[in-house]
Design a protein that fits this description.
The structure holds 2 protein chains of 2 kinds.
Chain A: H1 3-25, E1 26-30, H2 32-37, E2 42-48, E3 64-71, E4 76-82, E5 94-102, E6 105-114, H3 116-119, H4 126-135
Parallel strand pairs in A: 1-2, 4-6
Antiparallel strand pairs in A: 2-3, 2-5, 3-4, 5-6
Chain B: H1 11-39, H2 48-76, H3 83-88, H4 95-101, H5 106-127, H6 132-149, E1 153-155, E2 158-160, H7 168-171, H8 199-214, H9 216-227, H10 233-263, H11 274-299, H12 303-325, H13 343-364, H14 380-402, H15 404-411, E3 415-418, H16 421-442, H17 453-478, H18 485-509, H19 516-538, E4 540-541, H20 553-557, E5 565-568, E6 573-575, E7 578-588, E8 591-601, E9 607-613, E10 616-620, E11 623-627, E12 629-632, E13 636-646, H21 654-659, H22 664-668, E14 675-679, E15 684-687, E16 690-698, E17 713-723, E18 726-730, E19 733-737, E20 740-744, E21 746-748, E22 753-761, E23 766-773, E24 781-790, H23 792-819
Helix pairs in contact in B: 1-2, 1-6, 2-5, 4-8, 5-6, 5-8, 6-9, 8-10, 9-10, 9-12, 10-11, 10-23, 11-12, 11-14, 12-13, 14-16, 16-18, 16-19, 17-18, 18-19, 19-23
The chains are: A alpha/beta, B alpha+beta.
Chain lengths: ~140, ~800
């Protein structure tokens, strides 16, 4: 066999190994219900329930942040995050949590949030415009 | 649209839009003319198609400049009737950020890209000689495709591209726009996202886009080579441009990384965010391509690999653009754009160049100069080839993981990226990095074609052993040995690469100077890897804080790292080796700086080292964004970042009202219930945070705004407050006027105190002082995170060295071109 063919096989083997290792490493998107059934880490997409309280009191614990999130299936759970409350958290439209259920709480190791105002900036703040109208 | 809108400045927009269409048309003309100049007029030295192609391209370049001028005019004059100006800038934005407002949006990014491509096109017209016609056909074609991205024209109900001159009233759908006078209500733009208000935002995007744009040149040469069947000649021509592209893109990417480290809150220089990953795909494949191009030039081997890598790099540039602009990364990336309605157009952009590459390769497959003979095992070309393939594999891995949302969209699956994604990338990419760095080392001891085997093994062995010793030392000192074994291997590979290439560099100074470029670039890369490895691997969060209450028993049980520490104003906290205190604020709108004092205390209790960091929070439009501050030492950095502060930031104008709150009754609510003390001069009052010394009574005390008459009795109590090692003075006043008693309380805000001189007790020869303390929850504090990054300077220095290496290589390859 030619050396280049051997090398080609090695490369293909590595490529396959990469794909398998990535695939076995990937987690899944799920709901809180799915998270209750498994102990491994899951990604859950949902949105903040803005009508319920956000718990963050740095004077008591600077690394405890709790809130309620509704996942895309409408299930709601209390979520606990080890860290500070992310900036502009209240404005978030969508949250992607990584973590697992511990008892009745979802313990998030990572929160990714999308704030529309920050990224698309396409919200004309009508209230603000009106206020200026009055002052004319 | 019958309404006549008042106050709009439509002229610059019309001119700008005219330039957009003109640039598109001119690019199309240039493409078609160059195409026919290449095919029909191939044998004519004076072709009118050729002339027309040039004219088209010049016209394209000029209209791009016109476009830019119009856009700048619109932004500079704050014409908020244009969506672009309204969305990304505001009146208060300083001029230098107006420049960066220019490329804040997607349209501006495309504009920058097409601008650089035009510049490179002009360079090619000037320099490419016999290659001009086919190469410029490709470049002009690329301009055409880019032109469609900013066209913003509707054809058959489909909007093609997105124009930066879109009017606000056409971009958004609000009832206010039916009012002819709507502009008088829009006083200001949205302003720039505070995190982007940074000087890096002024230079990072242009550099990055020049890097992306310059990938077109090697691609154009490769396509021209295949198309014109000049299979061999294009390689030497393309090498300097390929090196240039690697140099610039590399610089641009690391600038982004430096920006993230210096002023964003990622807590590091590389976060493996999908958008970051995407920006290095083309870099990796182009670096791989450069190596095999050189192999081909010197030995005639690896032709297909070289061509393939050059072609795929340009496809990667478009794929990168697709990933970051199409909104597909929405669930996985923090800084991708959202869909601008151009999803399919971007997909088309990737496919056009992919299909073009594949079709050309398939059509010419039989004629390609692919060698039948194998490379020698002990030859430089073979191992350079292997190295390039491994670079390709590393890019492949990045691509597979980063594209998870793409796979989901394509196959309808619901896979999420690995949950500990950083570790995943670190381990797998390090495995590739180990192989690659090792190869950049020992390949230096091999010669092209054939090498003396015994001598090779001897030198390689000696250097490997030497590198292993150094690695052992570094690993022991920095504590890397506690980590995954892969990282130790990378350290070994990188150390080896630095040493082996150091030898080549030493030889270069003895006379073989042309070898210096690659040696310097490799040394730089080695240092970069070493720096990245130590800094990322052994960075230590020193603000560990396990004092919190943990609101639920389940939470308290977990051993999660608690990386944020709470620091009250003027109350020092011990953190690692340091005593940290929050000593004050300085505000220069919109920046709010927090002064954080670090004292390093030695074993003998003396202060060994003291410095003040000023991390800041930027408040704009009610959004807060924090920016870290870093103390740089030669061998490590102290990085400090505010994650929260109290009291919460006030919106503009609100502050003044609060500070001047006169309502005494309300004010007392800000304090705990007062404690009264009967004291005589010389007594001390103890309280929670320290003590108060009553130094004496003062009969000549003055009260502001009150004229003291002879019949009034005014007494001040001279108090000295000592709180957490700091001294403050305060003089609360007691006054009797016309038989009525008044007292004037004094506040010591820094100590969180209010003091009242409430009674005089002549029979006891004492006075009563009331001490109001702010409750813990009302005191000012910050929550911060501090990270120590050791040896990060290796990372930056390595980058600079690598860029110098690329530059030297460009000089050498250009010289070779002239010599031929």
């Amino acid at each position: 066999m030619k050396k280049s063919s051997i090398f080609g096989l090695v490369v293909i083997a590595i490529a396959i190994a990469v794909i398998i290792s990535v695939y076995s490493n990937t987690s899944t998107y799920g709901s809180f219900n799915d998270a209750e059934k498994t102990s491994s880490e899951l990604h859950i997409i949902g949105h903040l329930n803005k009508s319920k309280e956000l718990v963050y009191d740095a004077t008591k614990d600077a690394n405890y942040f709790a809130f309620y999130m509704k996942d895309n299936k409408g299930e709601e759970r209390k979520v606990v995050f080890t860290g500070t409350k992310p900036e502009d958290f209240e404005r978030s439209e969508q949250l992607v949590l990584t973590g697992n259920m511990v008892g009745s709480e979802f313990h998030a190791s990572k929160i990714l949030m999308k704030c529309p105002s920050k990224y698309t900036q396409d919200k004309l703040e009508v209230t603000e415009v009106k206020a200026k109208q009055a002052s004319l | 649209m019958d309404t006549v809108f008042k106050g709009e400045h439509l002229l610059p927009g019309h001119i700008g839009q005219f330039f957009i269409v003109l640039s598109f048309g001119a690019a199309l003309l240039s493409f078609i003319s160059y195409y026919f100049a290449t095919t029909d007029d191939a044998l004519k030295p004076n072709s009118s198609w050729h002339k027309l192609g040039r004219i088209g391209f010049y016209l394209n370049s000029l209209s791009i400049l016109g476009m830019g001028t119009c856009l700048f005019y619109v932004i500079y004059n704050h014409y908020f009737e244009y969506h672009y100006a309204w969305a990304y800038t505001s009146r208060s934005l300083p001029v230098y950020y107006i420049v960066s407002g220019f490329w804040n949006g997607q349209e501006g990014g495309f504009l920058l890209w097409t601008f650089w491509q035009a510049v490179l096109g002009n360079v090619l017209i000037w320099r490419a000689k016999s290659w001009e016609r086919p190469v410029m056909t490709v470049v002009a074609f690329s301009q055409v495709v880019l032109g469609t991205m900013v066209l913003g024209v509707e054809i058959f109900g489909i909007r093609i591209g997105s124009s930066p001159f879109l009017l606000l009233r056409n971009a958004l759908d609000y009832p206010i726009f039916s009012n002819a006078n709507y502009l008088s209500f829009i006083k200001d733009g949205q302003g720039m996202n505070p995190t982007l208000q940074n000087y890096w935002m002024v230079i990072h995007p242009p550099t990055l886009f020049l890097g992306f744009a310059s990938m077109v040149v090697p691609f154009a040469y490769a396509v021209a080579g295949l198309w014109q069947k000049r299979y061999k000649e294009w390689v030497a021509q393309a090498i300097p441009y390929a090196l240039f592209a690697c140099m610039i893109l590399g610089t641009g990417v690391i600038m982004g990384s430096f920006w993230a480290y210096e002023s964003l809150n990622f807590g590091g220089f590389w976060a493996w965010d999908p958008v970051e990953n995407a920006s290095i795909f083309p870099w990796i494949t182009m670096v791989a391509a450069v190596h095999v191009l050189i192999v081909y030039k010197n030995t005639g081997h690896s032709y297909f690999t070289a061509t393939f890598l050059v072609l795929i790099t340009f496809v990667m540039v478009w794929y990168t653009s697709f990933l970051s602009r199409s909104g597909i990364l929405g669930d996985t990336s923090v800084h991708s754009f959202t869909d601008n309605g151009m999803f399919w157009q971007l997909v088309l952009g990737v496919l056009i160049f992919l299909v073009l590459s594949v079709v050309l390769l398939v059509k010419r497959w039989k004629e390609l100069p692919i060698t039948k003979k194998d490379e020698e095992t002990y030859s430089r070309e073979f191992w350079m080839f292997v190295g390039s393939v491994f670079l390709g594999l590393s890019c492949f891995h990045l691509l597979v993981v980063t594209s998870v949302p793409v796979w989901n969209a394509m196959f309808g699956t619901k896979i999420a990226p690995p949950s500990d994604i950083i570790k995943h990338y670190n381990v797998i990419q390090s495995s590739f990095a180990f192989v690659v760095t090792l190869l950049t080392g020992f390949t230096q001891f091999l010669k092209y074609k054939k090498t003396d085997v015994t001598r090779f093994f001897l030198t390689t062995g000696i250097y490997l052993l030497f590198a292993a010793l150094i690695t052992a030392l570094i690993v022991y000192v920095t504590g890397i040995y506690k980590m995954n074994v892969v990282f130790i291997l990378v350290m070994w590979g990188s150390a080896y690469s630095v040493i082996a290439n150091g030898k080549v560099l030493a030889d270069a100074f003895k006379g073989k100077f042309k070898l210096a470029g690659s040696a310097v670039a490799h040394i730089g890369f080695g240092f970069l890897m070493i720096g990245a490895l130590i800094a990322a691997g052994t960075s230590k969060v020193i603000s560990i804080n396990n004092t919190g209450e943990g609101f639920s028993p389940e939470f308290a049980k977990e051993q999660n790292p608690r990386e944020n520490i709470l620091v009250y104003l003027n109350e020092p906290v011990k953190m690692g080796d340091y005593l940290v205190s929050y000593i004050g604020d300085s505000i220069s709108s919109p920046n709010h700086y927090f002064k954080v004092d670090y004292k390093k205390i030695g074993a003998d209790g003396k202060v060994e080292n003291e410095f003040v960091l000023k991390p800041k929070a930027l408040i704009s439009r009610g959004q807060m964004s924090a920016s870290p501050d870093t103390k740089h030492y030669l061998f490590h950095d102290m990085y400090t970042h505010i994650t929260m502060f109290y009291p919460a930031p006030l919106a503009d104008g609100e502050e003044a009202n609060n500070a001047g709150a006169h309502d005494e009754g309300n004010d007392d609510k800000n304090y705990d219930a007062p404690v009264s003390h009967e004291v005589a001069p010389g007594d001390t009052i103890r309280y929670r945070d320290g003590y108060i010394l009553v130094k004496g009574l003062n009969k000549e005390a003055k009260v502001e705004n009150i004229t003291v008459t002879a019949s009034d009795v005014v007494i001040g109590a001279n108090l000295e407050i000592v709180s957490h090692g700091k001294k403050y003075e305060s003089v609360p006043i007691y006054m009797i006027r016309n038989g009525n008693v008044f007292d004037f309380a004094r506040k010591v805000d820094d100590a969180g105190l209010k003091l009242r001189f409430s009674k005089v007790l002549p029979e006891k020869k004492k006075v009563e002082i009331m001490v109001y303390q702010q409750p813990e929850s009302k005191k000012k504090f910050i929550v911060m995170k501090a990270i120590q990054f050791p040896y990060i300077n290796f990372f930056w220095a390595g980058t600079i060295i690598m860029v110098i290496g690329f530059f030297l290589s460009i000089l050498r390859r250009k010289k070779e071109l002239k010599a031929v």
